[in-house]
Amino acid sequence: MSPATDAGTLVSIGVIVPVRGAVVTLGDDVRARRRDLGLLQVDLADMGGVSERFVRELEHDKPTLRLDKVNAVLEVLGLELRAHVREVGR
């Protein structure tokens, strides 16, 4: 599956990824990286060309967000979204 770039594309995020027994979501990663960089949500929103509300929704794992906006925020944070084949039984 290749990433969609259509501005109207919706993506379901907040997929649970087990890491060393813990559950980490995309929102958790975004929040942690933003804090590591010393940015407020409003700062990240301005830098990514999105609203503060969008950043808040992303960090709280809203199930549907525009992929182009998600990618804009991730770009500011130096993060990327990847797809991988699931292990059998997941």
Automatic annotation (TrEMBL):
Occurrences of domain HTH cro/C1-type (ranges): 30-84
UniProt cross-references to PROSITE patterns, sorted A to Z: HTH_CROC1 (PS50943)
Pfam families: HTH_3 (PF01381)
Name used for this protein in its record: HTH cro/C1-type domain-containing protein
Organism per entry: Mobilicoccus caccae
Origin organism lineage: Bacteria, Bacillati, Actinomycetota, Actinomycetes, Micrococcales
